[in-house]
Amino acid sequence: KQEVTQIPAALSVPEGENLVLNCSFTDSAIYNLQWFRQDPGKGLTSLLLIQSSQREQTSGRLNASLDKSSGRSTLYIAASQPGDSATYLCAVEAAGNKLTFGGGTRVLVKP
Amino acid sequence: NAGVTQTPKFRVLKTGQSMTLLCAQDMNHEYMYWYRQDPGMGLRLIHYSVGEGTTAKGEVPDGYNVSRLKKQNFLLGLESAAPSQTSVYFCASSYTAQSSYEQYFGPGTRLTVT
User: Fold this and answer.
1) What is the tens place of the pLDDT at every residue in B38-92?
2) Do the Cβ atoms of A44 and B90 come within 8 Å?
3) How far apart are CA A48 and CA A68, in angstroms?
4) Which residue from A10, A42, A62, B105 has the least number of CB within 10 angstroms?
5) β-strand B109-113 against A72-77: which pairing, if any?
6) Between A and B, how many CB-CB pairs are < 8 A?
7) How far is A30 from chain B (nearest CA, A)?
8) Would you give the end-to-end CA distance of chain B in angstroms?
9) Is the CB of A43 less than 8 angstroms away from the CB of B97?
10) What residues of chain A have any CB closer than 8 angstroms to a CB in chain B?
């Protein structure tokens, strides 16, 4: 059974510092990995999707890497801003058309 | 495009009552999903559908039923609500799966069962 873990559960950084969020998964037989952002009381917004054949994806200040063999993905957010405060979730898609989610990392960027 | 919409946004039920949550998408997506999110946990898949008229069980299907009579709609039913079903429910859709297509999420339905 696929298990996805995100450590730490919460993170607080001063504005301007780079954010590094970690995601690990137990079964490397995945089709893709997605990073989502969730604001309090809201739904999920997809940030980046990395296909299993890719090693990274970039969008603006966001960069996500994927190492399937070690079961790890890292989301980097450069020059963090207070507006980046949210919960970040990673999810992997494996056989059966299903996403398995991690528990999320709650991020607070202090002005 | 409205994307993925969910009705209602909030609901309070008494134990044993029934209700149906409606999810609608206007992106012509084939795949639709229902998840629940509990405090401190990630989302868990309840049921999903790979096309009109088809449904399949996810990770936590007990106590729920679903129907996909129209491609754009995916209904989640609770026949006899229990306090353990207090949660935030999210619907999602995607064009297909196992590829580069993202899942798009609705805003969620917050359900409390007393």
Assistant:
1) 987 789 999 999 999 999 999 999 999 999 999 999 999 999 999 999 999 999 9
2) yes
3) 16
4) A10
5) unpaired
6) 63
7) 8
8) 36
9) no
10) 4, 9, 31-32, 34, 36, 41-46, 49, 51, 89, 91, 93, 97-104
